[in-house]
Fold this protein.
Amino acid sequence: MVGYLWCLGTILSALACLFCARLTAAEPFVLAGSGDEELVVYSTADYIAVEPVLRAYTAQRPELTLIYHELLTQELHARVLDETRQTADVVWSSAMDLQMKLVHDGYARRFMPAARWQLPDWSHWRDEAYAVSVEPAVIVYNRSLFDGATVPTTREALLAWLQSEGDVAFQRIGTYDIERSGFGLLLAARDADQSRDFWTLVQAFGANQVELYSSSSGMIERVAKGELALAYNVIGSYAAQRAQTAEALGVVLPQDYTLVVSRVAFIPAAAAHPEQGEDFLNFLLSLEGQTILNDDVGFPAVHEDVDWNSTLFPENGLTRGYLEPMGVDTRLLIYLDQARRENVIRLWRQALGGPL
């Protein structure tokens, strides 16, 4: 019966995602201009989140109509593959590995932004793919549940806390379900590469009956309400935004290393309006665009002249030197290897104590 309900839930979730994808595909967001120029953007970011930077750009180009398609990562990838004759002018996605696959396979055109020399070397590849923002993977915790206790700021400290806190940690921790979230799988695979003790940490998650989630927002809300004490590998920008209105929510950038993923953008080779696409991407990577993304949108800037840490994560006092960014390069393709993905999932199940 449990297996039947799980299967039914999976099917319903898949149908819901398909419905959402069709809805967003059929109804793009349009910022109408006064002239005939158009700019078409495919993006996985919520329109409501990035609207400030879109409106700032169109204010400079009042004659241009901006058409923004809010898509799921897999749908965006499939669209670009299918639309070989004509597609969007900018493709902007949080799925770094899928973006790099498209660029590597020849779906992008070369473009050098004016701010090229203010961008770190790891953030771009062959003048084709660019990280537009950085996304630290953070730990979030409920302040009231840690009242008087030391908040773990490294994975070693987190493991010790999980092994000693008993009732505080048991059934009150969360992390990504890597079998449902491609983003969570990417982080877990990167953690496994970075730390020899990662699977021991996952075993401690399992011993405390960790709750698994398909998105960061669900974890953040549960922690903010005190229903969870702590959640691991949460998207930092979402956590920082919510912490501005949720006093109980604390955010930690792990001090042993902080994984960093990026929202990657490129100009498709089949762009209908490549000049407009280049102008928009140039704006996103400029000091002005990066400041808006950082301060008004909450997407930490990649531009070296924008100090994101002081505005988004003031408690941590860390510099960029603590970060371990995933470079925008072909090494990302190893995370798309099916055998590798299956092995990470197998080790994950084993560590959690579930079926192999």
Summary: Residues 135-260+336-352 form a domain with the D-Maltodextrin-Binding Protein; domain 2 fold (CATH 3.40.190.10). DSSP finds 13 helices and twelve strands in the chain. The chain has two domains: 2-132+262-317, 135-260+336-352.
